[in-house]
3-oxoacyl-[acyl-carrier protein] reductase
Amino acid sequence: MPETPRVAIVTGAARGIGAATARRLAAEGHSVAVLDLAEADANATAEQITADGGTAIAVGADVSDAGQVRTAVDQVADRLGRPAILVNNAGVIRDNMLFKMSDDDWDTVLGVHLRGAFLMSRAAQEYMTSDGWGRIVNLSSSSALGNRGQANYSAAKAGMQGFTKTLAVELGKFGVTANAVAPGFIATDMTRATAERVGMEFEDFKNAAAASIPVRRVGRPEDIANTIAFLTGEAAGFVSGQVIYVAGGPLD
Ligand code: NAP
């Protein structure tokens, strides 16, 4: 059954998982706001969607800034229509062992992932709850289970799971679902940066990761976009408050 066309916002959609998700939601027939820090970076994804026959706009905003979030969400409502789908995907890493982790490493990561998801969700739910339909998907991570050098990131990604469950509890009666997708290793600029940090070629880093993944490959951004397309679709209306690990195998 084709999806009812909606207005979707995908944060951090200039590249990686966010860009793949924006393209996928546009292919489902949704109008997509491609939001990223710099509008110019978001433009490439939006232009690609438009070239493929979809509808998209680029929006520049820092998701951790309350004023910019408010302006961005209202701008989407003015230019595309009332947002009904929100994917909180924007993310950064500032990896360091705890004894070397700076206050700024901590605040930046918690600020983008957790405060960003909070600010975006609070702004978007106003439209969703008054329209009686909405889908929120938050990006968690397998690192929520703990990962060396990522005290800040794993705290943020575990926080995303509790945040998601609370949104599901509060917003369900308004027709709004909230779920988290927790990717394992996905080949993007983020994992490329991790390879650089540990002094490995990206290909070697990916091959080493693939060897310990049951399906014997690392993930692609499209693997996550496919899962998000399901969770944001009509058919997922009874799925809420869940954390879905998309990691090529089970995780503890
Ligand atoms: P990515 O390639 O680094 O892309 C992240 C995007 O978020 C970038 O375009 C970045 O913009 C944007 N962004 C950063 N801070 C922002 C802010 N304050 N406001 C708006 N946009 C901001 O990352 P990815 O690998 O696609 O990851 C996407 C999401 O999946 C993240 O939440 C990440 O934690 C999660 N995840 C990824 C993996 C993986 O293996 N790749 C695994 C688990 C979870 P700039 O380029 O301007 O910084």
Observations:
- The chain has a mean pLDDT of 97.
